[in-house]
Each structure stands twice: as C-alpha cells, then as structure tokens.
Amino acid sequence: MEKENVPQDISNLTKNNVKELLYATDENGEYTTTLSTGWEPKAIALSNSIDEINERIADAKSQVENGEASPILYFMELNKMDVTILSSYVGLWKWRVKRHFKPNVFAKLNDNTLKKYAAAFEISIEELKNSITK
Q1: What number of H helices and E strands is found in the chain?
Q2: Residue 121 in contact with residue 75, Cβ under 8 Å?
Q3: What percent of the chain lies above the pLDDT cut of 70?
Q4: What is the pLDDT of residues 104-132, one digit of tens each?
Q5: What is the spatial distance between Cα 61 and Cα 13, in angstroms, rounded to a whole number?
Q6: For residue 51, which of 8, 11, 12, 45 sits 20 to 30 Å off, Cα-Cα?
Q7: Longest dimension (CA), the chain
Q8: Single pTM value for the model
Q9: Which fold has domain 42-130?
Q10: Can you tell me which residues the record assigns to a coiled coil (predicted)?
Q11: How far is CA 104 from CA 39, 59, 64, 107, 130, in A?
C-alpha cells in the first residue's frame, strides 16, 4: 500500500489518540513506516472482540452470583485468560484449574492454593473469596 493511501478511519484507537505503526511504500517504491488512526474493518473486528469479552465476563459473573461457578472463573475471564494460561500462572494442571471452577471444590481450597490464584489475578485472597458475592 502506498503511504498516502494508508487508512485514517475513526476507530477505538483514535479515542485515546493512539496511532498504529504500519509499513507502506513511499513515492520511490521503498518500504517505510507511517502512522494510521485506524481502518474500519479492523475497528469493527476489534469492537466485536471487546463485546464478546464483555459478554463472557458478564456470563461468568452471573454464574458466580448464582452459585454455578467459583470466582476463579470470573477473574480468569476478567483478566482475559484461558485455562491454559491460568494453569501456567498458578502451576497447576488444567484439569485441576477446571475443577476449581466448582463452588464446592473452591470452598475447600487451602490458603496456599488461593494465594496462587490471587497472585495471578493481582488481588488479595479476601477479594478472590468475596468480591463477587457482595
């Protein structure tokens, strides 16, 4: 793409006055860098992704409030993690992390295990146990 044709569409990036660095060709046909405020298809995809993330967070919160899941599920979604990432942060097998999503299993977790989760989410054990149910 030629430098003068780099899209400058309004996007989520422009809200924070952020510009994206892109490669384009200059008037001599040489590759160079240029800044772009956004590109409409990318902005739509980004917006859809953010909406999906927010839906997953709301769903996880609802499951915790209804006693269907533990707060670990909510904080995992809130921190944009998946089971693989979370298990690597806490040093536990994925099947154990999934098991800890069950409220009755979560209630029996010792402080050392809770401390690992709290550290991964950058919150206190108290916040992990109580922030959703308030």
Answers
A1: 8, 2
A2: yes
A3: 91
A4: 999 999 999 999 999 999 999 999 998 77
A5: 28
A6: 8
A7: 68
A8: 0.76
A9: 434 Repressor (Amino-terminal Domain) (1.10.260)
A10: 43-70
A11: 47, 19, 12, 5, 15
Do residues 97 and 86 lie in contact, with contact meaning Cβ atoms separated by under 8 Å?
A: yes
Amino acid at position 49, single letter: S
pLDDT computed for residue 28 by the predictor? 86
CA atoms within 13 A on the CB side of 56: 15
What's the alpha-carbon Rg for the chain, to the nearest Å?
Answer: 21
What is the C-alpha separation between 56 and 78, in angstroms, rounded?
9
CA–CA separation, 72 and 9 (whole Å): 39
The single-letter DSSP state of residue 124 is: -
Contact 10, 43 (CB under 8 A): yes
Rounded to whole angstroms, the Cα distance separating 66 from 82 reads 21
Q: Are 69 and 33 in contact (CB under 8 A)?
A: no
Cα distances (angstroms) measured from residue 97 to each of 18, 36, 87, 102, 106: 37, 41, 6, 10, 10
Instruction: Identify residue 9 by its one-letter amino acid code.
Output: D
Residue 117 near residue 126, CB atoms below 8 Å: no
